From TrEMBL:
TM annotation in the entry: 181-200
Coiled-coil segments: none
Cellular component terms (Gene Ontology): plasma membrane
Membrane topology of the entry: Multi-pass membrane protein
Subcellular location: Cell membrane
PANTHER family attached to this UniProt entry: IONOTROPIC RECEPTOR 20A-RELATED, IONOTROPIC RECEPTOR 60A
Signal sequence interval, chain numbering: none
InterPro entries on file: Insect_Ionotropic_Sensory_Rcpt
Chief place of localization: membrane
Organism whose genome encodes this protein: Lepeophtheirus salmonis (Salmon louse)
Keywords: Cell membrane, Glycoprotein, Membrane, Receptor, Transmembrane, Transmembrane helix
Name the record gives this protein: Uncharacterized protein
Amino acid sequence: FVVTIGYRGSLISVLSVPHQSPPINSVKEVAESPLPIASFGPFHYETFMTSQDEDIQKIVDKFIVHYDYEESFANLSDRNVIMCESKGFLDYSIRERFTDNYGFTTVHLVEECLNSYSVAFVTAKNSIYTDRIGDKIIQLNAGGLIEKWIEDELNLIARLSKTETTAAHNKLKINNLEGPFYLWLLGIGISILTFVYEMMGKSS
């Protein structure tokens, strides 16, 4: 009886534990998600409107333009929207707003970007420093120093845990129930042997 109740409890706990869906990591998954896409100001919306990509057009159809950052972050925190901003801004915001003291965050940065933009430095026309500055920036970027400096500055806000907290969960299979099932069979066998032993004792 005890073993049977234990098996039933294990079965219920295994089947009733809520599992999160796998994280969204591509533009296609963003487009297929039922959540609307939110951005601060119309820049991204107007940019995506000219795209011929089918997935981008699906995103445009459910795009929301925010003019209040607090409202936008509140909707993201409540899981009502998917936020669309620059990667650098989102990296900063995740650490500032959604990361605890242990480095765990409650939001996930999609791996595939919707668009890419060129960022440049401007010097005076015909400046003698233009080529030197350009060469140094290329060297710093090739050496990985710019990325390191950005990471160092972000770590001053909050250091993210090395463990990915939004990793995909495996679907449950029948193998997950093998342990409790074998325990149940063992318990039944012991119960039958005990019952037979008691009956033999009474008959003698």
